[in-house]
Amino acid sequence: xxxxxxxxxxxxxxxxxxxxxxxxxxxxxxxxxxxxxxxxxxxxxxxxxxxxxxxxxxxxxxxxxxxxxxxxxxxxxxxxxxxxxxxxxxxxxxxxxxxxxxxxxxxxxxxxxxxxxxxxxxxxxxxxxxxxxxxxxxxxxxxxxxxxxxxxxxxxxxxxxxxxxxxxxxxxxxxxxxxxxxxxxxxxxxxxxxxxxxxxxxxxxxxxxxxxxxxxxxxxxxxxxxxxxxxxxxxxxxxxxxxxxxxxxxxxxxxxxxxxxxxxxxxxxxxxxxxxxxxxxxxxxxxxxxxxxxxxxxxxxxxxxxxxxxxxxxxxxxxxxxxxxxxxxxxxxxxxxxxxxxxxxxxxxxxxxxxxxxxxxxxxxxxxxxxxxxxxxxxxxxxxxxxxxxxxxxxxxxxxxxxxxxxxxxxxxxxxxxxxxxxxxxxxxxxxxxxxxxxxxxxxxxxxxxxxxxxxxxxxxxxxxxxxxxxxxxxxx
Length: 477
Hints:
The protein is of the alpha/beta class. It has three domains: 2-109; 119-175; 254-468, Carbonic anhydrase (Beta-carbonic Anhydrase, Chain A), CATH 3.40.1050.10. Helices cover 65% and strands 6% of the residues. It has a five-stranded mixed sheet with strand order 2-1-3-4-5. Helix 3 crosses helix 4. It starts with a helix and ends in a 9-residue tail after the last strand.
């Protein structure tokens, strides 16, 4: 019994030993297999690295050749011009490398990476090219604009120099003419009247002797009958005025108190005192081409300021007239002589506000004419009577607005409003302090603000009648 148990124990120990041995063998085999696989991986990795390095070495000259537009055969011929051998071998080697690159995915990895990088860079390249092209276009445009401005400036400078030269020539001609006239009339220094040459004569202008007795014509008057007629008409007017109203001329010599200021056109067919049948001292007048009131016209502004602030006029009349040459010229296109003739330049500059009015007006007669001639060069003969009168009327209305917003008129209206308020306060307290209040009322009456009004009128050359355009404005309008 004991021997049997011993046998079983020995048998069990032997089985355990065999199992341990088998496990050890299995572990050893697995380790060897792992080592073999790792060695194979390392070998494959080394091979891939070697191929990658080889590819890079091969790709570098290829990239250089591609940048130069060459292939391997051409490069070989350039490097070995006397050798005809090896070209076939090189071609076969190149074909083999290309086939191996196509068959081996790992060999294609660098090419794929380059393709991906090129694809990613393509949009950026396009944006860069677009930006460069845009910058070039902008620079070309700026250059063209600068060129045009330079050419225009050069043309204007040449025109100005030509105008200056013309003025100098005209001045020289006038000087020569003046000297000739002085010699012929005997008005130089030491002439028949014994008068010294004045400053005007020194500049070549014909002058009359200071001691000449009028109306007896002397000097230049003898050469111009139309001037003699004016002196005769003046004497006739004096005689008639003294006969009908002997106090008029003496009273006007003391002071003027006109109630009307007049902004009119310089056209000789529209004399304000004649068409309105007024006497001297009734109109305070300024006239210019096109009856315009402009903020940069110091002459008109000064007339208005003096008329309102010092003369205390009650009405300002802006008078236009039909068949106005200034308006017709503004409707027509500018003359080609604007850049070369100083006279035309001045006229065109003055007419620009009327030209702007014509270009922007929405009045049907003006808009329809403008649209019908937008692609044509408009001349004076193209201007119809309808559009001509319409622009004349709109020009009067526009200048009424310009006068109304002038600071002088606005201050007058403000004083009028304040004066009405102050007058009501004074009237409410009239029962107290009668003597003192009476003194204050007299002083206020001398400083009483004027109710100033601005009107727009039109003189019709065909009928001789004046028409109110219905655009009057005032402090209580």
